Protein: Zinc ribbon domain-containing protein
Organism: Psychracetigena formicireducens
Amino acid sequence: MPESYIDKNEGKVGYETTTAEKILAIALTVFLLIGGLRLAGAIDRLFPHPNYTLIRQEHFPANLEAEFFTLQQKYHELRVEVQRYTDAEARARLDYEKAREEYRTLLDRGVDDPVKKLRWEQTRNQLEQVQKNIETAQTTLNNFRADLFAPKEIIFRAAEQKFQEDFNRQARTRNLKAGISLLIYALIMFILSFLIFNFFRTRSGLSRYALIGVSFLGFGALQALIVSFRIVYPYLIGIIPVEAIVSIGGSTISIAGIVYLKNRFFSSRAIRNRRLWKKVCPVCGFPDPGNHCSWCGSAQLVECPSCKKLTNEYLPRCRECGEKL
Ligand SMILES: [Zn+2]
Ligand SMILES: [Zn+2]
């Protein structure tokens, strides 16, 4: 295949694309994304999450949890009891003060009521009893806390902390491995999609289906974005500078893509080729240029070195003899 054939195809960029084709191209991107993200999910599942129960068992000696929770329950009950007596004391004090007041008021008037006096003494005894109960309950609570609950709590909290540290460390390691694997997957898929895009663009027989290549490229780019932000970002945040890597990497890829597309489709050669296909002046785009362009004056014809006849100056081959110019 002559080299110039590809050049001519570059000029065919202006293939018309119908709305139906565009919708199908978007649908293709979506279908590719569904499959690609499913694959990403499968890669993610290849890395098992640390087993919470198993790691917990390693850090908690047999029955430690059960013993601690039983003690905690008992401690709670003792505290409730102290509170209950404290509430009872408030009520008993109120009864006592009321009875005393009633008795004294009558006494001030010169009446020594034996019923009121008895009531006053009874409420005073009740108050004293409740106060004793509080003291006993508080002592029981303090002893229980000092002798049983506090020592067990220290052991339990230490085990809890070690367990949390171990579990978090294993989870971090797991997420680091999975996150890097997913980043590599997304990058490979992006490069692959770009190669497919390029394949459709450059193959002469396939260039009219270039939209399929665009769908693939769109899939690769979108998947890289989604995988970065939905999966990789939460896994790696705090472990490696994800934002910096994604930002710098993404910017580099985007700039490279823009430069590539610009050179490919908007280079002076590509523009000139498109104008030749439209049969307008390749220098300025004015229609029907004749021997010299009536707008810019540039010569359109040149003498062929092989057959010495006049042919288009800007085309790769002589229109009379077909030799390369
Ligand atoms: Zn011109
Ligand atoms: Zn010729």
Notes: The chain has eight helices and two strands. The chain has two domains: 1-278, 280-325. Residues 17 and 211 are 8 Å apart (CA to CA).
